[in-house]
Amino acid sequence: MKVLLVEDELKLARALEKGLRAEGFAVDKAEDGLRGLEMALGCRHDVLILDVMLPYMDGFEVLARIRRERCKVPVILLTARSGLDDRVKGLDLGADDYLAKPFDFPELLARIRAITRRPSSEPQLILRVADLELNLGSHELRRAGQIIPLRTKEYALMELFMRRKGLVLSRNMILDHVWASDMDYGDASNLVDVYVAQLRKKIDAGREQKLLQTLRGTGYVLRDPS
Ligand code: CA
What are phi and psi of 210, to 5 degrees? Predict the structure, then answer.
């Protein structure tokens, strides 16, 4: 799951980013409203966490503009004020939820889970390919009923493959989703190869049916071979 965080308080933004990454989310960040709008309009995020008081363009305006462009990303507004006016205005403009600062991180996580689980944006809680099952609620991966433990990045990678089952994913696309665009990649394509190899070992080693396949020169695909 990919989160766009638009927040100009750098300390808070950094803390939220760290917490979200630890929970397996990929995070993109913007520090002002204009940049946030530009990134949100790419419509590549599963959730937008949007501060109201921002430089250049406030969160209400950002929200109004992305909804005008028919971008349906679920939005959680962060407001310094808990005033009813702000809440009503935010919800009227198409926010899905709001949090008044200061808030506890688990509260934000709970809101994110709740809005991404709503039927419109998240019809299934369990994703399946052959006998492989990923539970988006509990974060458990099972093959033929057996639990396969995953590290944080492996989970993010697995979720991406599951959501795009049968589709070929390039290394760049995987990097973009799992490692977010602000990272210093270094030898990035190698990083993807290493993680895919680890994941393959976990799900396919010793099994007759290999689900995670390499397409030489193109990328990777998760599919049911039968
Ligand atoms: Ca602010």
Answer: -95, 125
